Amino acid sequence: GQQVMQIPQYQHVQEGEDFTTYCNSSTTLSNIQWYKQRPGGHPVFLIQLVKSGEVKKQKRLTFQFGEAKKNSSLHITATQTTDVGTYFCAGLSSGTYKYIFGTGTRLKVLA
Amino acid sequence: GAVVSQHPSWVICKSGTSVKIECRSLDFQATTMFWYRQFPKQSLMLMATSNEGSKATYEQGVEKDKFLINHASLTLSTLTVTSAHPEDSSFYICSATGLGNTEAFFGQGTRLTVV
């Protein structure tokens, strides 16, 4: 079945450093979503990417969808302690209606 | 964004008993609801998908007789863990999407502990 892997699994950064998490799907995706889950909380929707090669920005966050629509990345510029949490991508395979979550990247920001 | 309310937020039950978890969309009609299970420090594993008025579609390896899902209305889906065992202890979370909208809104989750 479809698999969605994320790397790295964990990342510790000093406040102010940049951070990137990569998402790779075993199948071509119709679209991909990104979520953030704070410790003890539930996933919160960040963004959806639909087009091949699409790039979207939200303040310090930059999201990219690969040309082949099988991978995606989330880049955070100048991390802050409020960025702490686990970032999940969730991919929707072509022809299906359900999102499969990636393995997640847990980010820790050291002040 | 839209609001999805999940209840209870935590529950402790005895082994062998059943537990019902409710997931309500408060300000939109949820045509599709998803139920996930999340173990500590792991990803969300999709258990089943339910559409209002029809039987749920279960993922491979998920026992439909153990995890009963009912989506009786456009605002309510329930997950009942039947004859719970300690290995069923986990964080269960629902999400909902509305007609023509692919953004999913998550409930707060339910932490189930079976003793």
Looking at this protein, list some descriptive labels:
A: 111 residues; B: mainly beta; 7-stranded mixed β-sheet; 4-stranded antiparallel β-sheet; 0% helix
Main sheet properties of chain B: 7 strands, mixed
Cα end-to-end separation of chain A? 41 Å
Helix content of chain A: under 10%
Alpha-beta content class of chain A: mainly beta
Beta content of chain B: over 45%
Distance between the termini of chain B: 36 Å
- Kindly report the oligomeric state of this protein: heterodimer
Separate helix tally of chain A: 0
* Class per helix and strand makeup of chain B: mainly beta
Count of beta strands of chain A: 11
Number of strands of chain B: 11
Helical stretch count of chain B?
0
Report the major sheet of chain A: 6 strands, mixed
Tell me, briefly, the overall form of chain A: globular
Kindly report the average pLDDT value of chain B.
92
Strand content of chain A: over 45%
Can you give the mean pLDDT of chain A?
94
The rounded Rg of chain A comes to: 13 Å
| Helical residue percent band of chain B | under 10%
Radius of gyration of chain B: 13 Å
What this model shows, in words?
The complex is a heterodimer of chains A (111) and B (115). Chain A is an all-beta fold. Helix content of chain A is 0%, strand content 58%. Chain A contains no helices and eleven strands. In chain A, strands 2, 4, 5, 9, 10 and 11 form a six-stranded mixed beta sheet that branches. In chain A, a hairpin with a 5-residue loop joins strand 9 and strand 10 (99-101). The radius of gyration of chain A is 13 Å and the shape is globular. The model of chain A has no long low-confidence stretch (mean pLDDT 94). Chain B has 115 residues and is mostly beta strands. Chain B contains no helices and eleven strands. Chain B has strands at 4-7, 10-13, 19-25, 30-38, 44-51, 57-58, 67-73, 76-81, 90-98, 105-106, 110-114. In chain B, the strands form two sheets. In chain B, strands 2, 4, 5, 6, 9, 10 and 11 form a seven-stranded mixed beta sheet that branches. A four-stranded antiparallel beta sheet of chain B has the order 1-3-8-7, with no helix packed on it. In chain B, a hairpin with a 5-residue loop joins strand 4 (30-38) and strand 5 (44-51). The radius of gyration of chain B is 13 Å and the shape is globular. The termini of chain B are far apart. Classes of the chains: A mainly beta (111), B mainly beta (115). The A-B interface holds A 1, 31, 33, 41-45, 48, 88, 90, 92, 97-104, 106 and B 1, 32, 34, 36, 41-46, 49, 60, 93, 95, 102-109.
